[in-house]
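To whoever is covering the structure queue this week,

Two jobs came back overnight. Logging them here so there's a record in the thread.

Job A:
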Amino acid sequence: MGYGELKIRSYDVQTHRARVEDLERRCEVGPSKRVVLFTDTMGDPICRIRNSPVYKMLIAELGSEVVGVIQGSIKLATVHKPPKNLARLGYVLGLRIAPLHRRKGIGLELVLELEKWFIANDVDYSYMATEKDNEASVNLFVKKAWICQIQDTGDSC
């Protein structure tokens, strides 16, 4: 990477909150051909996962700069596959990489760490969602052999 050693850490509200909020402000969210969505977390970067039974937020740091973030949660869901009718589902959301640090493998490192957490917590299935025109995100998960299905058309990617 050339910028020093990348460190992946668990989010700590005291240490990382202001820097994660700054990263969120610098990252565009939403389809590139439409209005960009800004998500105001109102001072709580884990607000999207806080109500999940089990959750984790990881940050990627280069030096003292937070250059990436990812959130994951685990929930139980009913499935109709006897003998086990409950499955542990892992959800990946909120993957953000600072614009100047994209395409350097930081997103992949964050996903790998979150996958390790899912495995350690006996997750049966994991899911992620992204905009279909977010090529970097789609390519990352396809490269990791995640099954990709576009919701509005049913087309596979």
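Job B:
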Amino acid sequence: MKMTRNQQKSIPMDQVIIMAMEHLYHTIRSLLWEHAKKEQLSPIQIQMLVYLSGRTTRASTVSEIARQFNLTPATTSDALRVLTRKGLVKKSIDKADKRIVHLSLTPEGNHLTGILSQWTNPILEELQHFSRENREMVLIFFLKFLENLRKKNILKELHICFSCAYFRPDKTADSGYCILRNLSLKNTDIQLNCSNYVSSPDV
């Protein structure tokens, strides 16, 4: 017997959440592709540029970027080689260990990143239609959800306050305390990809 529309089973809420995140992911990838084609770069190369633009206090290494984007060192090196050839990324040898190469943006890379960062504008505009309270709830959910995935090693690399060497639990604050900035952190103060992030050996 064929089920009517009203008799069909609804999809469980948690599964709908996963489906919604998948739709959002594909939308973000589509917007990124549009900008990538204009600049003759791949989406991952654009993401690397944006990532490097946030590392204002220290340069990144190939291995760090590979972990951040869950890529092999070889694939990461190939992508960075193109960015270096285009004059967007520069390399510098570590003074203490000459085997380590640090990567940072050139002035041209910084300029282009400012343009490329606009690819998120359509999504940012839609977010403004929701109240700050709604946006804070979404932010807190995603940050805690990502942190749980990191703890279970499902998410390999996550530069979040909770796993930073400068983070301390603090019962007097919503989330904790940053000893670098000397700041009590509310849930909405928790950062992703902070330029001061240093991985804690205890997490």
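Note for Job B: Residues 66 and 75 are 8 Å apart (CA to CA).

Please reply-all if you pick these up so we don't duplicate work.
Q.
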